[in-house]
Every structure is written in structure tokens, then in C-alpha cells.
Amino acid sequence: MRGLIAVILLDLKRLWVDRVRLATSLIQPLLYLFVLGSGLGASSVMGGRGYLHYIFPGVLGLSLLFSSVFAAMLIVFDRQIGFLKAVLVAPVPRVSIALGKVLSGALQALVPATVLLLLVPVLGLGLSPLRFVELIASMWLAALTFSALGVATAARFRSTTVFPIIGNAVLLPLFFLSGALYPLDRAPPWLRALAHADPVAYAVDLMRGAVIGRYAYPPVLSICVLTAFVVVLTWLATRVFAAGDNL
Amino acid sequence: MPGPADPQDPRGDSGGPGEIAIEARSLHKRYGAVHALRGIDLVVRRGEMFALLGPNGAGKTTLFSILATLLRPSEGEARVLGHDTVRERARVRERIGIVFQEPALEGKLSVRDNLYLMGLFYRLSSRAAKARSEELLHTLGLEEVAEREAQKLSGGQKRRVELARALVASPDLLFLDEATLGLDVDARRQFWGEARRYSQRGGTVFLTTHYMDEAEPADRIALIDHGRILALDTPQALKNRIGGGVLLLATADDARAAAWLHERGFEPEVGARGVLLVVPEPAAVLPEVLAQLPVRTHRAEIHEPSLEDVFLKLTGRALEDGQAAPRVRGASGPGAAQ
Fold first, then answer.
1. CA angle at A182 for the pair A153 and A42, rounded to the nearest 5°
2. Per-residue pLDDT averaged across B5-14, rounded?
3. ipTM of this complex > 0.90?
4. Are residues B43 and B127 in the same domain?
């Protein structure tokens, strides 16, 4: 338990002292929403405000996804400079390191996403307290899933030049497939089939359900799928950290 | 455990398992086709300062990494503080501190925070981690830089923080891998002073280096090359092993000089500094050699054997590959003649 806390505390302290990263993570989501929302909304058949309501959970998803994967990239950076060695050689259970990294990545991603919540009244989303709580809970689950995805991948990489390339190659399709920016109702069947395997799709749908009250997948299914992703990916990351020849 | 011959402990050679800090048995390590370690056996006793000395690429870091639980051996096994370095890795890690070759500090955090967080990683309570950090800042003379970002320290200060980091959990055994690489003379002296202080308080130190003067203060030294231990003994015994004094000749053509000496029944070695000759009484042969050598001699020198000479004699190669190390102390009294 102490190890777990140490892993998280270390990452949060680092975010706190890194004012540029902190400020960027606060400003970036607002850019997403206004630039993307206004630009796309103006030309959309769904009309300005309605579309903004539609993509708001999508933007939350985008922010959570990219921030948590960026947080995970610091693992690769730590490995490259040698700092990760000092952490991995400490007598901390490997599962505490993996879980700590997943949790700290989720927390780091939730900072900008929480800033975005300030827009809930501005956009006139009119959420009841219950729906608001539901949205927050969905955001947590989404953040944990994306962070686990990032940590399980980053744990395997040694080069800070390769990881972002792979990251982008995987992240963007995951995001576009998720229905975050446009509904997939009218998409070809193969695309919709692919979306069923995309954790981002379940996460965005869960958040969108909380905001607009309509779900594409049953919420229970989404919760189960996302939880399974978190467990399996954290286990995979634990195995990588436990490998002896990996320091 | 009663009974002198404990069947559970086949290693009972030097006074029971409690006295042994490190024991390696027929360790091999292969990286694909590269055979980096070719059967390493060694025993390091508790409280000993033990140096692994060899040139770059000799297998020092590979052996170090296996003993420090960072790497699995391909064959053989190692026990550190009584625990297997593979199967009981976690038990070993609780009780060792490591200073790596590369920096392992979080550059953006303060020195104090680095130490405090490492304390938490070693399962100290928050209060204990704070107290231990303050203690180390004090004993290692880092109080003035405690609030500075680790990345803004000088090379020597960084290394001292690394040492403090390794000592945070009060380990029984300290592993130092080329710990002073790239430091200036003062910083190196200061670092080794601290390491010796730890050793004098009863801690065991296992260090690797390719500077002979860093190995010199160790209780025992293992000379390693091409993945094998060539010799393992106290510094003095290693030098005695060479059997005589050293005559060093810097000539206009070292290869030709060596060939000529060879014809005369000597066993010369050509090193970076010239032709090396080990003879029982160098002073007795020097005049004759100088008079008859067919090449011009720039410099002749007689000295007590150094570890460098031992290494050269054992391998026919120079230890420091021509690149002079910043010496902490001067070479031991060279009696030079022109």
C-alpha cells in the first residue's frame, strides 16, 4: 500500500512542479471544445448547440485519452533516463507499481477533464445532480481505462521517439472509431463492428448517456467491458514490470 | 540450527552463511551470440569493500546487474545476503542500495523530495522517510542544496545525492557501478570518502570501476576481463603476485624494443605507456638494457608493481585503454631515470 501511494505521490508531485505541463493541461481542453465545437457545429446538420451537446462527452473522451497516454509516456521517458530503474529496484510489489501508474495517469488526465466540467452550465446542459454524479463516475472509469491502455503499452517501450509514433498510430483510429465526434449509426457495418472492440467507444457512450440520456450500448455492458480492460491491461503492465531482464 | 555440517548449507566455507554477503557460483550470461560472463565464482564477506576491476566491456556491469537483481543469469546462481537473486529478488532488494552508472534522480524535484519519495518506496513511514532524508542531507553535506532541483546540481553533488538515495533504506550492502564516471578529482575523492565511511561503519560495498586507483582502497579486488575473473585477492597480494619490480621503457619503437627484449629471454608487454618488463631486480638489469637496446629510449622508469601492471601482465592489455584517469593519488613513487 505504501508503495502504491509512493508511486502516485511521486507522479503528482512531478505534475505540480511542472507548471508548463499543468498549465497546458488546463488550457488544452478549452481549445478542443471551442475550436472543434464551433468549427464543426457551424457546418453540422445537427445545429450548433445540439451538436455541442453531442460532442461534449466526445471532447471529454479526447482530453482523457490524450492526457492519460501522455502521462504514460513519462514512463518511457523515465526508463530512458534511468530513473525508472531506481523505482523498479525498490522492494515495491510489481502490481503496486502498475496499479499506481494506472491510477496516477488517470488522476493526471482527470485534471483537464475536470476543468471542462466548468462548461456544463455554460453549455446549458442542465444536468440533474444524479446525472452529474453519473458523468463524474463515467469519467473516472474512462480515465482508468485509457490510463491502463497507456501504461500497458508504455511499459514495453524503451525509446521516447518510437512510443509517440506508435501511440498516435493507435490513438487516432481508436478515437475516430469511438463515435466521439459523429454518430456511427450511418457508418458501414464493418466500421460499426470494429467500434465494438474499441474501449473508447464504450467510455464515450457511457459519458454521453449521462449527458444526453441516450446510450448506444447498455450501460452495464459498458461498465463491464471497461472494467475488464482495466483489469487485463493492469495485469499485463504488472507482468512487464515483473520481468527480470527488463531493468 | 545445530550441527557443524548443515546439509541445507553446502557453502559453509568461510564461517557460516551469516558471514557471506555475496556468493556467485558459475555464473554465465549470454546475449544472443555474445558470451558476456563465462563462469564467475566469487564470495564477498560481510563488511568487506570489494572491487571489480576491469576494462570497458569486460563484463563488469553484467555481473553487477546480476548480483544487484537487475538481470537474470543464463546459468549458475547468486545469493546476496543469503537470498537467491532471482527467486528471492524482493528479499534482496529490501536490503541493498544501488548507485547506477546512469543518473537515477527526478531532475525536476528537489533533492529533499527525491530522498523523501525514495524513502516511501522503501516502505518507510512518511515520518521516518522525512527523518532519514534530513539525516542523510546532513551527513552527506547536502543541506545547502536540499531545496534545489536535482537537475541543477553539479556532477559531484548529483552523485552524492545518488549515494544518499541508495542509503535511504539503511541497506546492509551497497552496490556502486562505475559510480564516479566523469567526475573531477575532488568530487571523486569526496564520493569515495563517503563510501568508505559507510564501509567503516560495517556496511558491505561492492563496486565496479576501470580506474585502478578507485579499486586500490578495497579490501579485495577481482580483476575481470572477457567475462572471466583473472585474479582475486587483496591489492597487495595481487601486486606481490607479479614477483618483482617493474621496469617501464618508453622508446622510439616499442614493438621493436619488445621483440629485442624477447630475444634476450625477457617477457615484455607493450602497454599504452611503453614496454613493461617485470624482473626480480629491475635496477640490476637497467644499465645493460639501456646500453644495448637497439632503439632510442626516451624514458626509463622503475617502480613497485601497480594494479595496472598486474592487469597488463595478466592480459597483455592496458586497463585504461590509453585514456588517463583523473588520479586521486599520485602513482606510487616512481624512481625515474633518464
1. 125
2. 39
3. no
4. yes
